[in-house]
Amino acid sequence: xxxxxxxxxxxxxxxxxxxxxxxxxxxxxxxxxxxxxxxxxxxxxxxxxxxxxxxxxxxxxxxxxxxxxxxxxxxxxxxxxxxxxxxxxxxxxxxxxxxxxxxxxxxxxxxxxxxxxxxxxxxx
Amino acid sequence: xxxxxxxxxxxxxxxxxxxxxxxxxxxxxxxxxxxxxxxxxxxxxxxxxxxxxxxxxxxxxxxxxxxxxxxxxxxxxxxxxxxxxxxxxxxxxxxxxxxxxxxxxxxxxxxxxxxxxxxxxxxxxxxxxxxxxxxxxxxxxxxxxxxxxxxxxxxxxxxxxxxxxxxxxxxxxxxxxxxxxxxxxxxxxxxxxxxxxxxxxxxxxxxxxxxxxxxxxxxxxxxxxxxxxxxxxxxxxxxxxxxxxxxxxxxxxxxxxxxxxxxxxxxxxxxxxxxxxxxxxxxxxxxxxxxxxxxxxxxxxxxxxxxxxxxxxxxxxxxxxxxxxxxxxxxxxxxxxxxxxxxxxxxxxxxxxxxxxxxxxxxxxxxxxxxxxxxxxxxxxxxxxxxxxxxxxxxxxxxxxxxxxxxxxxxxxxxxxxxxxxxxxxxxxxxxxxxxxxxxxxxxxxxxxxxxxxxxxxxxxxxxxxxxxxxxxxxxxxxxxxxxxxxxxxxxxxxxxxxxxxxxxxxxxxxxxxxxxxxxxxxxxxxxxxxxxxxxxxxxxxxxxxxxxxxxxxxxxxxxxxxxxxxxxxxxxxxxxxxxxxxxxxxxxxxxxxxxxxxxxxxxxxxxxxxxxxxxxxxxxxxxxxxxxxxxxxxxxxxxxxxxxxxxxxxxxxxxxxxxxxxxxxxxxxxxxxxxxxxxxxxxxxxxxxxxxxxxxxxxxxxxxxxxxxxxxxxxxxxxxxx
Lengths: 124, 723
Description:
The complex is a heterodimer of chains A (124) and B (723). Chain A has 124 residues and is mainly alpha-helical. Chain A has five helices and two strands. The two termini of chain A are 44 Å apart. Chain B has five domains: 3-162 and 679-716, ATPase, nucleotide binding domain (Nucleotidyltransferase, domain 5, 2-Layer Sandwich), CATH 3.30.420.40; 167-200 and 612-675, Nucleotidyltransferase, domain 5; 204-269 and 586-604, Actin, Chain A, domain 4 (Alpha-Beta Complex), CATH 3.90.640; 294-419, no CATH class; 445-471 and 541-573, no CATH class. In chain B, helix 3 packs across helix 23, helix 13 packs antiparallel against helix 17 (540-558) and helix 20 crosses helix 22. The model of chain B is unreliable at 474-487 and 567-573 (pLDDT under 50).
């Protein structure tokens, strides 16, 4: 290790005296690095919230409902109010200038703009 | 710097008695750890872990938090980016969590056999039991911590500010955090989670949105928009517009106000060295070089021309000599004599001589004339050779009749030739006159004349070039010809393609409505156009080419600087694509609408595809979710809306929130929005103040509790915030 790296102590020591079980004991290198954690979705599934009393607050039921306000549509490129919508690219746009721009955009840029609001075409 | 890390190793760990709790604010963006009862956390760092490979040794190491990028050059970070233990506001990867806790305790100065202090650690609202129990397990088993308490960060921040008198006992806490935004109603100083709600949007999404928008807006500078830089820009420049639509309209109209609100970030840019006008000497030197080159080219052209003339003259002499010899040779010996040469007959030699002399003239730049003379001679010889013509038919024998018909034919052709000669003579005269006029003009104003001649030369040569190009491949008009695409269409000449077009249109026109083909006479012209041998050209180009050679030879005579184009070897002017020189403005990142568009997603999560209510609506939802309490409570809640969490630092958020909540509450409701003293650190401070309370141990649970009471108990475990 380089001198300045050692001095800055940015690398976490592998052995720490205050630990009862060291990292290398818990996650030995020889063992296959298979996943030993669950995604949040899997965690929530395993919680079996359906068995809980209905009025008990849980991680799932405290989520906000969808908005009841009419959705404000903004231009995907400029952020201005967007009265128009281009059926070819599915982008919303504010005026003719932006329209010209979006029609000249390559498809991957269009998809990236759409991905910003989670509307891109996703191939599975 | 957006990330203010504080990672000096503390030395006083062992001075604290084992009853002093360690307080951890385990937020999705920052990890803060310190001692209960103190005002500030001892160690703060970003809640991320990187596991790069050390370049020199090749071993994988763990690096927790943010560090000087200069130090990271020794590591190969390409295979693994920074990782977080969080998914939303829930810890799910406990391996990463362990690295973080290791680093935190290590920097706190722990060096004993275990961490012998109670721990108060924060978690999200309604944290799933699995995450909670894993965290407890980790703390108990790995670090030997005697007892643990879990609390909600927003609640600690609320408690802290309530004690400071910022907010009331009944209050609605709105906490826009890093990955989620929570609204928690507090009644009598205790959170009512039943009435809380969570939208999965936070500072992370704002930064990401800004980063994406900027990299889409400035694709050339995409590499500049690192996560850290975007976070920096967000914290420095973003604000919440009082009314998004009207603010955006300001920018759309390009008003002065909007201009004032626009920020621009100048990327490092070095102006290209300004092109100084070349000095006199330089110009002179260049001109001299050019002149020299031109001189050389002209000499070369001249040498080429003279050598060609020489060659042709030699050939001509040879042929003339051959002819002379041929005259001396006996008629019978001619075939044997000729077999020694490459010619078969005398005529062939003569025609070859003629050709050579013609091309000699052409190279010398003289007008055609020899041919005419030769023809004249023949004509003269042939004149008066038609004795039978004037004799009436009935006086002739059949043989003579035949002869007469032949003579008649010859006569008409020779007359025709005579006429043509006459015409040619006239045109020659015309040419002569023109030449004379030319000469006069030249003498009159040599400069202008030269200019005109040059123009004409240029025009003609371009025309000829174009024609040539059209003939070989006609698609010079469409710039793609340079791209090297050689499909069938590209290989055909313009005329051929036109023919193809005609054929296809004719073929596909059938059956489309009424067939009126042939009704008009012009229709039949189509076949003429379609016919295959249509594409051989008229005499036009030849004339033009002749004119071109004439002018070029004339120019060569009178203009010492003239160089014929074909000698230069450039068949067509090559258009070099011109790049606009990059200016300072190309290296400016302009933040206009983005300044308020990005944080606006807190109020309109659907702009980034999250179909949930925004901040203002959440407040309404939260109040509605509360179990039926008196009217007074609702009013008391709205009268003390408390903002905390890192993403409430945007200027204008309180005003906007007030306006938004006013819209959804009954008219006349008292609405007051207050912000935490320090929205970022108050959660830790509140927790530290809470943990120092003598009643704190009643809220913790030990390892034995954890194992004896079971999961169901852990699920219902809840801290009482008012001790």
